[in-house]
Amino acid sequence: MNYDRILIRYGELSLKGKNRKLFIDKLKKNIKRVLRDFENIQIEASRERMFILLNGNDGSEIVNRLKSIFGIQSFSPAVKVEKDLEKMKETALALFQKNYKPGQTFKITTKRSDKNFFMRTNEINHTFGSHLLQNVEGLKVNVKNPDVNLLIEVRHEAAYMTCETIQGAGGLPIGSSGKAMLMLSGGIDSPVAGYLSMKRGLNIEAVHFYSPPFTSERSKQKVIDLTEKLAQISGGVTLHIVPFTEIQQLIQQTIPENYSMTTTRRLMLRITDEIRKKRDGLAIITGESLGQVASQTLESMYAINDVTNTPIIRPLITMDKTEIIDIACDIDTFDISNRPYEDCCTVFVPSSPKTKPRRDKVRHFESNTDYEPLIARAVENVEKIRIKPQSSKQELFEDLF
Fold this sequence. Notes:
CATH topology of the largest domain: Rossmann fold
Helix content: 25-40%
Number of helices: 14
């Protein structure tokens, strides 16, 4: 007995009420994109469930890809069967025998959404449990911790059976919450912030500040590789690489050293905000964790935020470094982030940065220099790269993308 489809459970999407269809449609679109190279599969979506009809495709590879798609609470390779008791018994036994090994225990779990079905939930459990016990020698029941759990869903159109429940990524479908710009350094934190933002349904574009010759091509490639890891989750990410050398050199010349990091962050935020406007984004994402470094004290954030009214999303704000590293390892960005190629923030970091900068002071220091032409030039000369998953080839493209 081979599985003929994959049953997808929505989880959090089930709470969306009148907007549920919008979220389900977005999830269906994301699944189609991730599985686009599988021929003949069909995706059927209803208010309660989604089904991927395998039509002869390899279900194991599809299962691996589904694990990283946000918006899926759990899923199961399943078999569809008519709501005929004898056919259901026959299918249940064949499916169970395929998954059972001698000496294992089992239980039956039934979900009966079709309340008109002639048997109640407990009756179904008892009937199918008895059928398996009569036909599988040495089989024993364990309702608390079974080796094999045969799940039976009785729905209006048919019954579905499975012996596997695979945990999904949870969250919301990417793109269901709008677009935001991720300030992506080469460090550990910002890729994790991007990942967690995508989990809440945000479609992200990345912004990286690049200062040659002080930062090398290898540091740029490091960020491209990090972006590719995020693209494997979302299906594709646009990376904006901002030429920042001229601005950083001017900051070193015109701003007191202990305030130079504050001004650097403020100008980065201003440039990111300009790119956001051009790309129709609604927010900016950073990898800041409260108190982790000098620029991430509450006073620093207050002074830096002064340059924009755009919402700043900080998914890591209450996490410690160990928690962040654990997630970075899970999403396979940690080793890339640890490559010894510095970004512009680490190259130009002052020896004693101000941990409690005053907003009025940084405004005063910046008022002596006209940064507007440099900001405009940096935005104009941004290099845009479309990075696709599992691809060594990046595509340069125009603004109409």
